[in-house]
Design a protein that fits this description.
- There is one protein chain.
- This protein is mainly beta.
- The chain has 4 helices and 39 strands.
Length: 422
């Protein structure tokens, strides 16, 4: 599939960059307002009252404690040296009720926290073409929240919280019932979920770092036709969860150091018709855990030093696992059933010990990636204490000779002999 498919995928990704986002330019004609301590105009709220649509507010350095600041007109708000908008732990700080608003260069901190209201540092209410760029959000319940909006750009923001419990924390970037969203270049740390999509379609998540969040680095619910590309999900409760969604494309991401009893690099639950291409899964409890997944292409990924490379529940079907590399995983593949309705072929397995007598680069005998001992652990977790014992080794070797408990039809009939290039 090689270069031709790579070209097709890159062409598709390029088209995603050309979605109908209106990136607002600060060169739009309008009056310029200087706002800051010691200036005649020292209140952001007052400046919003005096300004006209498409004017620009230049916010000078300082600390602004003005409660909730509501924006009801298209406006540019530009901060110099990150002026601080402080919610004092009581308020939603910036509430956007207009389309074509541009917020850039602010430090937004200390929003209110509530179990009833979803207070946010910046919240977009039912609007289009809003740009949130190059801001710092600190200690906010929800960081940036977009509700029933479309064609919005959330780019190069740094969101930092110190959440301790999931029930008392919000998400870093939260999108509900949105479309054509562009989430790029953000760093999100210490929230419940780094990025959360619910009922979001035709949107694009690119080049974000989501780390040390309590639950997921990225979480999809009922969200279709979305793409996430080139992101790094590091040391979260779990890396990414894609649930009850379809046609999600997952390219060139890194899922790393997501450890825990119920932790995964990538959790797929009740999803269909997706693509998982050229990702790296390294040092996770499970690289990918799948339940109720169907019609997925899993190709050109690297699974390295995970507890399980992939765990595929018996409810999965029509998966194509092609041209992936498995290196140094404790178990390459695990399952809880005896029937497999999926196809594995031309993957590299570092545990494969076969030969290639005709020198075509493919092993002459099939490789069965599920060990008997992994099946025993699936049904009796405490037996993990016997891992690397002579008993476990004998069980696995005997199962290779006379398969009985592992799925007979889960095998790679064309295993690669040489490792894949990084």
């Amino acid at each position: 599939m090689g270069n031709q498919d790579d070209g097709k995928h890159m062409k598709h990704l390029h088209s995603l960059f050309l979605l109908t986002f209106l990136v607002l330019s600060v060169s739009v004609l309008g009056k310029k307002w200087e706002v800051g301590p010691g200036l005649p105009l020292h209140s952001i709220k007052k400046a919003l009252t005096l300004s006209q649509p498409f004017d620009t507010l230049f916010i000078q350095p300082g600390i602004y404690k003005e409660g909730n600041i509501a924006i009801h007109k298209p406006i540019f708000i530009l901060g110099k040296s990150k002026p601080i908008l402080d919610g004092e732990g009581k308020f939603e700080i910036l509430s956007i009720f207009a389309s074509k608003v541009h917020i850039e260069g602010l430090c937004v901190r200390n929003s209110g926290h509530s179990s009833v209201n979803d207070f946010a540092g910046i919240k977009i209410y039912n609007q289009k073409q809003v740009c949130i760029l190059n801001n710092d959000l600190q200690n906010c319940f929800f960081g940036i929240y977009s509700q029933n909006s479309s064609q919005c750009q959330i780019e190069n923001n740094h969101l930092l919280s110190a959440s301790i419990q999931e029930q008392q924390s919000g998400n870093g970037i939260h999108c509900w019932k949105c479309s054509l969203m562009k989430i790029t270049g953000n760093t999100i740390q210490g929230h419940r979920d780094g990025i959360y999509f619910e009922f979001v379609s035709n949107s694009f998540i690119w080049h974000n770092l989501s780390t040390q969040n309590l639950r997921y680095g990225l979480h999809f619910m009922f969200s279709n036709q979305d793409t996430y590309l080139g992101n790094h999900f590091l040391n979260n409760g779990s890396g990414v969860a894609v649930m009850f969604s379809n046609h999600v494309k997952m390219y060139y991401n890194v899922f790393e150091e997501n450890w825990g009893d119920a932790s995964y690099g990538l959790l797929l639950k009740e999803i269909s018709d997706g693509e998982i291409l050229r990702n790296v899964f390294i040092k996770n409890t499970s690289g990918i855990f799948m339940e109720g997944a169907s019609r997925l292409l899993i190709q050109d990924n690297r699974f390295q030093s995970n507890g399980w490379g992939m765990k595929i529940q018996a409810s999965c079907m029509d998966l194509t696992v092609f041209h992936n590399g498995f290196y140094g995983n404790t178990f390459d593949v695990g399952t809880n059933g005896t029937l497999s309705l999926n196809r594995f072929y031309q993957n590299y397995w570092d545990k494969y010990k076969g030969y290639d007598l005709n020198k075509d680069g493919l092993g002459d005998s099939p490789f069965r990636p599920i060990s008997l001992f992994s099946v025993v652990i699936e049904n009796n977790p405490p037996s993990l204490l016997l891992f690397r014992s002579m008993v476990a080794g004998l069980m696995d070797e005997s199962e290779k000779l006379i398969p009985s408990l592992t799925p007979l039809d889960l095998f790679d009939d064309q295993p690669l002999i040489k490792p894949l290039k990084p």
